[in-house]
């Protein structure tokens, strides 16, 4: 096949030197172009002279103050620059790994550890092209961190809108190990809790969820029904509260939606046959007024996964 019929073959013989020619034309100096190309100045000058000889055209006018393009050099630059420049930029983009879009979710430690992390691998698998980042705090502030795009926290329940929904209501029961309950057969009514070791979650400020005092008060037991403060076991992590209850150290408050798997496995059992529900719940919110498609897709996945599963539990399906 002749060179006329094979333009790629013809171009391939000159492509490297033509790219160097465009670099020289852009820099206006052989020294600077050689530095950028990783060549010595004499070597670059030699290659430009070789290109001129091959094409039979004088492309560069060399002077004390640098180089200038001849008329033929200007014509060559005009013919090559738009196309080679676009090709060079496209190749550079191909070499650079695409930055993954990351969606940042903020929630409290209890929800993250007991409820969200078990489904986190499934969430990541559902969005392989996205980065999913989970930020946790003991008590998420009223104003989430500036990087958060979705937030899940205990708040007063509100009607579902396009940007927020309640994953499940706050529904709480007293839980303990099966061994602890068997060792205390007298524990049948809430007033019996006054003689039992209660396990508390310590927080700096008043938490936006049930405490032993508010849970018992809603039962009508008042503050006098629970044990003295000295009889309490206190932890600043809900994971530790639950672990302490599992090992038989006392009775803890267990949130439906967080401890269901432990109740199902028998690691925990209800200490009393009563549950209390508040007007609060775990609210899922999109923080941006106009969230992007990625944020909305993650929001929809969480909303559907959690609310459907919780409804299955309430209906007795699980």
Automatic annotation (TrEMBL):
Keywords: DNA-binding, Transcription, Transcription regulation. The keyword Disulfide bond does not apply. Gene3D superfamilies: Periplasmic binding protein-like II, Winged helix-like DNA-binding domain superfamily/Winged helix DNA-binding domain. Residues 17-70 form the HTH lysR-type domain. InterPro entries: LysR-type_TF_proteobact-type, LysR_HTH_N, LysR_subst-bd, WH-like_DNA-bd_sf, WH_DNA-bd_sf. PROSITE patterns: HTH_LYSR. It holds the Pfam family LysR_substrate. The keyword DNA-binding applies. Belongs to the LysR transcriptional regulatory family. This is LysR family transcriptional regulator. It comes from Salipiger mangrovisoli.
């Amino acid at each position: 096949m002749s060179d006329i019929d094979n333009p790629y073959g013809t171009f391939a013989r000159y492509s490297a030197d033509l790219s160097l020619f465009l670099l020289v034309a852009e820099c206006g100096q052989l020294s600077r172009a050689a530095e950028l190309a990783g060549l010595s100045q004499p070597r670059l000058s030699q290659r430009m002279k070789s290109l001129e000889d091959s094409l039979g055209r004088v492309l560069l006018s060399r002077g004390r103050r640098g180089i200038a393009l001849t008329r033929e050099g200007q014509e060559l630059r005009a013919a090559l620059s738009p196309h080679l420049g676009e090709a060079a930029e496209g190749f550079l983009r191909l070499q650079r790994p695409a930055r993954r879009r990351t969606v940042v979710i903020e929630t409290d430690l209890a929800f993250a550890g007991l409820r969200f992390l078990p489904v986190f691998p499934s969430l990541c698998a559902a969005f392989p092209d996205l980065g999913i980042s989970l930020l946790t705090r003991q008590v998420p502030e009223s104003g989430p961190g500036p990087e958060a795009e979705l937030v899940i926290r205990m708040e007063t329940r509100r009607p579902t809108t396009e940007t927020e929904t309640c994953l499940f209501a706050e529904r709480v029961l007293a839980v303990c190990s099966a061994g602890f309950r068997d060792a205390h057969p007298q524990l049948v009514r809430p007033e019996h809790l006054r003689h039992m070791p209660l396990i508390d979650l310590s927080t700096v400020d008043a938490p936006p969820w049930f405490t032993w005092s508010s849970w018992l008060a809603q039962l009508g037991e008042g503050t006098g029904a629970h044990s003295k403060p000295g009889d309490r076991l206190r932890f600043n992590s809900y994971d530790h509260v639950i672990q302490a209850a599992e090992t038989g150290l006392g009775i803890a408050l267990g949130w439906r939606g967080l401890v269901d798997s432990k109740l199902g496995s028998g690691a925990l059992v209800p200490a009393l046959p009563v549950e209390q529900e508040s007007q609060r719940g775990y609210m899922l919110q999109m923080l941006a007024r106009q969230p992007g498609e990625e944020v909305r897709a993650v929001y929809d996945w969480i909303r559907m996964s959690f609310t459907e599963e919780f409804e299955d539990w309430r209906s007795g399906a699980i």
